[in-house]
Amino acid sequence: MMEVFKAVTCPVCACLCDDLEVTVDKGKIVDVKNGCAFSKSKLLNYNGKQRVLKPLIRKGNDFAEVSYDEAVKQAAKLLTEANYPLFYGWSMTSCEAIRVGIELAEEIGGVIDTTSTICHGPSTLGIQDVGLVSSTLGQVRHRADLIIYWGSNPLIAHPRHMERYTVFSKGRFQEKRKLVVVDVRETETAKKADLFIRIEPNKDFEVLQALRVLIRDDELDVEKVAGIPVATLEKLAEMMVECKFGALFFGSGLTMTEGKNRNVDAAISLIRDLNRITKFIIMPMRGHFNVTGADMVFTWQTGFPYAVDFSMGYPRYNPGETSAIDILLRQESDAALVVASDPVATLPRKAAEHLVKNPLIVVDPHMSATAKLADIVLPSTFVGIEAKGTAYRMDNVPLPLKKIVEPPTGILSDEDILSKILFEVRRLKENAS
Ligand code: SF4
Fold it and tell me: Among 16, 17, 162, 189, which residue has the most ligand 1 atoms within 8 Å of its CB, making it the best to mutate?
C-alpha cells in the first residue's frame, strides 16, 4: 500500500530540511518531494549493493558472517583488552546513539572524538575563546537583509540553505537581501553574489581585522589587504554597517586555512563589533546532518564538545593532544570503534594507516572504505530512514528524525548495537573483578 510521509527530516546535511514528502510503496521509497539532489540520491538509493546485511568478522583476507551476539562479544573483548582505544565518528547518527557511545568510551577509559576534528573543531575553539552572537535560521529567514558566505559554497555543499533561509527565501519581514561571498575562487555561490571578494589563500585573518578597523571609520595605511583593494573592503564595511540585520555564514574555507581558530576569533570579534552599530549574527555551516548534535551530547555528558579523553578516569579535553588525528599520528591508540563515519576515506593517510593497523570495529549500514579494512563489521540501520532519533540543525535546533521504512530483517540500530556492546563490556569487567 502506498503511504506518503510528510514533514520528513532529511538525514544528509546540517540544514536538516524538515519539509520532505516521502512516498513509500510496499516498504520501498519510490518518490521524494522537496529534497535536493543529495537528499533524493540518499533516500532513493540507500539500500544499494554496498549494504551489509550480516555481522562480519575478519578471517584472513576475507570476512565470515556471524551472529550479532558473536560480533558484539568479540568487539567488547577487543575494546576491554585495549589500553587506549579510540571511539570515532558520530556525526551521521542520532543523539540517542551518541549518548550510549560516550557511556561506552567512559566505561572503557578510551578517547572519543567526532568528525568536528577535521572540519569545524576550530569554530568550537574560537567560540570558546570569544563567545558567539547567533540566532536561529528562522530569524535569518524572516529578518536578514545582508547575507555573507565566507569560505563556504552552499549552492554545492548545502543546496537548500539559500532557498530555505537566505537569499532565495521570502521572510515575513524581509524578502530582498544582498548577497556577499568571500572566497579564494569564484564558486557557484559567488556567481550569484551582489559583491564577490576574491581573497588570497590563507589571508582571512588579515581581511577580518582590516574590516574591524574599517567599520569603526578608521583608515588603513595600505592600498591592498590580501590582494583586495581597500576601496572594495570599504564597500563591504559600508554594507555591513548600513544593513538592518546581517548574517555571516562561514565554512571550512575559514576554519581550515592558516590561522584556523584565530580566523574564527577574528570573525566573531568583527560581528561583536558590528553589534554596537546594528544587528548581526554569525553561524558555522556545519556539514554532516548531526555533527551539531554530537557537540551537544558530548557537552551535556562530559562538559566538552569533542576530543574527550577518559583514560585518567575523568573527562579531559585538549584538542591537539586528545583529538583523533593527533592520537593516530602519534600512534598511541591500540584499538578503535568507528561509528557512522569513514575515516579511511577522510583522515590523513598516516592517521588512517595507524587506525587500520590495530583492532578495528566498524558500525555502519554499508561497506565503507573503513569497513573493508575492519576486523569486525556490525551492520546498522540508516537513522532518519529505518530508525527514528534526534538530530540538531546547524543553528542548534533539535529536530526529530523519522522512521519511514522497515530495516532489512534482523538489522539493529546504532543505539541498540552500542547498548549491546556496553552491556557485554560491563559483564566482562564484572567477571574480571
Ligand atoms: S540541503 Fe541538506 S538537509 Fe536539505 S534536502 Fe539537501 S541535503 Fe537534505
Answer: 17
Instruction: Indicate which atom in ligand 1 lies nearest the CA of residue 159.
Output: 1
**Ligand 1 lined by 240 (C-beta under 6 Å):** no
Supply the CATH number for residue 234's domain. 3.40.228.10
If one counts the domains in the chain, the total is 3
pLDDT in tens, 155-191: 999 999 999 999 999 999 988 899 999 999 999 999 9
Same-domain status, 296 and 406: yes
Mind listing the pLDDT tens digit for each residue in 261-282? 888 999 999 999 999 999 999 9
Statement to judge: residues 115 and 126 lie in one domain:
no
Distance CA 357, CA 116 (A): 23
The residues, ordered by sequence, that sit 6+ positions from 43 with a Cβ below 8 Å of its Cβ are 10, 20, 22, 29, 32, 35, 385
Cβ-based neighbour number of residue 49 at 10 Å: 7
Range of the domain at 88: 50-119+289-432
Does ligand 1 come within 6 angstroms of the Cβ of 253?
no
CB 38 less than 6 A from any atom of ligand 1:
yes
38 CA distance to ligand 1 middle (Å): 7
